[in-house]
């Protein structure tokens, strides 16, 4: 197949998404608070993830921030976070004056390693952030047990994992709170940015709802009046964003099926390439395949992953190195640069994220697979 083929971009908004946004605009009720467009979307998210409460917010990073705030994370506290993830999993820890403590990941799933977490738990640990990376389920049984034993709440960062499940249960209900991202490129989007906090704890849900809107809430005994119970944030989701998110959420199962079908097709086409390790799906889980991530093993005369990525991009395959700089090695977290987290450090030089989103057909996947095989075996 010609290397000049152009792969479709993601996301791809449908007519239904656009019509939902237009309807919300025409309602002349654009602010989210008290708007049924937002509350309907929240109800759909909660039902879909099997939790009692979903609170829509402006971004996935805001969701992590509010979840941590709801747990009263503050100065002097530590929060354990995987180093192999997006910075939005860790930066909110610093917003609250706490200290992120970076943990290593497992070599097969690339998710948080329970053994690494266990070694880092101290009396200062206030929370554990578990990331279901790339749509792969983390080991929630082991990680939840560690949190329970230490009396430390667990936050599921499922920004990349709408559609992921463990034992038939969607992720998001295994921890004390969970955080959703609705960013442009995620499994579903609310029109560019957006997020949500999920929980089964009504007190956490109430606190997050208050915090997302300047800390304001009703005054007991004075109907119709509100005041700021605490200093909060402007993290509201608009009705237009909620309308798009709700329209997309109705197609989540269809999108998930397409992602899994495309992942299976790539696995079939890429199998047997020496030195190329394909994604794993842990037993009794469903992988959402937000990213189809492969590992290029060093040696064997193969080019390094960075060189292969450059070659693939030159041939029309929009491939990226997957987290080439672990968080503990980045300038924003300079105090951690002396830490050794060998698995994440090794993976940072070996992982490639291949396109596999629902907008791709077999002809596009054939092009990806052909070029990957050609580049890896050159």
Global shape: globular
* Total number of strands: 16
- Which percent range describes the beta-strand content? 15-25%
| Main structural class | alpha/beta
Q: Which blocks of ≥5 consecutive residues have pLDDT under 50?
A: none
Percent helix range? 25-40%
Question: What is the CATH domain class of the largest domain?
Answer: Alpha Beta
CATH topology of the largest domain: Aspartate Aminotransferase, domain 2
Count of folded domains: 2
Question: Main β-sheet: number of strands, strand sense, barrel status?
Answer: 7 strands, mixed
Separation of the first and last Cα atoms: 17 Å
Strand arrangement in the largest pleated sheet: 1-9-8-5-4-2-3
CATH architecture type of the largest domain: 3-Layer(aba) Sandwich
Description of the structure:
- There is one protein chain.
- The protein has 378 residues and is an alpha/beta fold.
- The chain folds into two domains: 15-249, Aspartate Aminotransferase, domain 2; 252-376, Aspartate Aminotransferase, domain 1 (Alpha-Beta Complex).
- 35% of the residues lie in helices and 17% in strands.
- The strands form four sheets. It has a seven-stranded mixed sheet, with helices on both faces. It has a four-stranded antiparallel sheet with strand order 12-14-16-15, with helices on one face. A three-stranded antiparallel sheet has the order 7-6-13, with no helix packed on it.
- Helix 1 runs antiparallel to helix 8 (239-249), helix 2 (36-49) packs parallel to helix 8 and helix 3 (60-70) crosses helix 7.
- The chain is globular and about 75 Å long.
- The mean pLDDT is 96.
């Amino acid at each position: 197949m010609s290397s000049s083929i152009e792969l479709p971009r993601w996301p791809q908004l449908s007519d239904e998404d656009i019509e939902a946004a237009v309807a919300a605009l025409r309602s002349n009720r654009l602010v989210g608070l008290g708007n049924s467009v937002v509350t309907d979307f929240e109800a759909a998210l909660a039902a879909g993830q099997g939790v009692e409460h979903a609170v829509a917010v402006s971004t996935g990073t805001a969701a992590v921030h509010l979840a941590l705030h709801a747990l009263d994370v503050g100065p002097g506290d530590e929060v354990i976070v995987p180093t192999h993830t997006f910075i939005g999993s860790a930066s909110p820890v610093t917003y609250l004056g706490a200290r992120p403590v970076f943990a290593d990941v497992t070599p097969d799933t690339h998710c948080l390693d329970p053994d690494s977490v266990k070694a880092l738990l101290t009396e200062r640990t206030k929370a554990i952030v578990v990331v279901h990376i790339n749509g792969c389920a983390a080991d929630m049984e082991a990680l939840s047990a560690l949190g329970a034993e230490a009396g430390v709440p667990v936050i599921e960062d499922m920004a990349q994992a709408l559609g992921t499940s463990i034992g038939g249960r969607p992720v998001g209900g295994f921890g004390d709170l969970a955080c959703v991202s609705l960013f442009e490129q995620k499994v579903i989007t609310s029109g560019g940015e957006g997020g949500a906090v999920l929980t089964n704890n009504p007190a956490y849900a109430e606190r997050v709802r208050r915090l997302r809107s300047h800390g304001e809430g009703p005054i007991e005994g004075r109907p119709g009046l509100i005041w700021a119970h605490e200093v909060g944030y402007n993290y509201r989701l608009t009705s237009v964003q909620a309308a798009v998110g709700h329209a997309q959420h109705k197609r989540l199962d269809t999108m998930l099926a397409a992602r899994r079908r495309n992942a299976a097709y790539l696995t079939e086409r890429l199998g047997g390439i020496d030195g190329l390790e394909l994604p794993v799906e842990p037993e009794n889980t469903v992988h959402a395949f937000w990213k189809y991530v492969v590992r290029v093993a060093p040696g064997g005369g193969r080019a390094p992953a960075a060189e292969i990525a450059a070659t693939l991009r030159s041939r029309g395959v929009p491939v990226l190195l997957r987290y080439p700089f672990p968080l503990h090695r980045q300038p924003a977290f300079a105090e951690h640069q002396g830490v050794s987290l060998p698995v994440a450090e090794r993976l940072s030089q070996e992982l490639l994220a291949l396109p596999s989103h629902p907008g791709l057909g077999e002809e596009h996947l054939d092009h990806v697979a052909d070029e990957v095989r050609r580049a890896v075996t050159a």
